Amino acid sequence: MTRVAIVDDHPIVREGLVAALEGKKGIEVVGVFSRVEEALSRRSAEVVILDLELPGMNGLDAIPLLSRSAAVLVLSAYGESIEEAIRAGAKGYLLKGAPLDEIERAIAAVARGESYVDPRLASRLVTRSQRLSEREREVLRLVAAGQSNKQIAGKLRISERTAKFHVTAILTKLGAENRAQAVAIAAEKRLL
């Protein structure tokens, strides 16, 4: 039985979640709160379903505190904070309006220690993770200039192994098979 707490400042959301989850096999709602501070004072849940926009302490600030004793599953109307929530320690992120069976799957996944991201947000998260870092852009410019890994390492004052790591990451993120193709793709996407 997975013990679940709900933290949301909207009564209709809290009541709706309780009504939907109560009686579901394997789920027991053990706490319903409108503020993070209330939830922090009673830590009996394995999974905390958390809204981010809350009075008092906001959800992003609460994630590291709540995740010490429970898996945090964010349930938000907005997807813009997904990266920050995951960095803060959230195990899952759903958009409000997710179907009940998806909420149940997410609860089960995070309770097992897995991650769960709303399918509507997954592609956005993948796309963002494929962006080149500033250092990778520097390396890419040097690759485009015909520099070897050894030359890149010397110019950027990094090890040759680190330079090679950056080049490999660039190839992977751009979906290129070699350095020349990476430069061509980068030029096409105006990354240079």
Protein model, in words:
By secondary structure, the protein is α/β, with parallel strands linked by helices. The protein has two domains: 2-128, Response regulator (Rossmann fold), CATH 3.40.50; 134-188, Winged helix-like DNA-binding domain superfamily/Winged helix DNA-binding domain (Arc Repressor Mutant, subunit A), CATH 1.10.10. Helices cover 52% and strands 15% of the residues. The chain contains ten helices and six strands; from the N terminus they run βαβαβαβαβαβααααα. It has helices at residues 11-21, 36-41, 59-66, 82-88, 100-111, 119-129, 134-144, 149-156, 160-174, 179-188; strands at 2-7, 27-33, 47-50, 71-76, 92-95, 116-117. A six-stranded parallel beta sheet has the order 2-1-3-4-5-6, sandwiched between helices. Helix 7 (134-144) packs across helix 9, helix 8 crosses helix 9 (160-174) and helix 9 (160-174) packs across helix 10. It is elongated. The termini are far apart. The model has no long low-confidence stretch (mean pLDDT 91).
CATH architecture of the largest domain: 3-Layer(aba) Sandwich
Work out the oligomeric state of the chains in this entry: single chain
The run of helices and strands is EHEHEHEHEHEHHHHH
Average the pLDDT over all residues and give the rounded result: 91
Globally, the shape reads elongated
Would you give the CATH topology of the largest domain? Rossmann fold
How far is the first residue's CA from the last residue's CA?
Answer: 53 Å
Structural class: alpha/beta
Task: Supply the CATH superfamily name of the largest domain.
Answer: Response regulator
Main β-sheet: number of strands, strand sense, barrel status? 6 strands, parallel
Strands, total number: 6
Specify Rg, calculated over alpha carbons.
22 Å
The CATH class of the largest domain, by name, is: Alpha Beta
Give the strand line-up of the largest sheet.
2-1-3-4-5-6
DSSP summary: helix tally: 10
Helix % is: 40-55%
Sheet-strand content, in percent, reads 15-25%
The parts where pLDDT drops under 50 for at least 5 residues are none
How many domains, in number, for the residues? 2
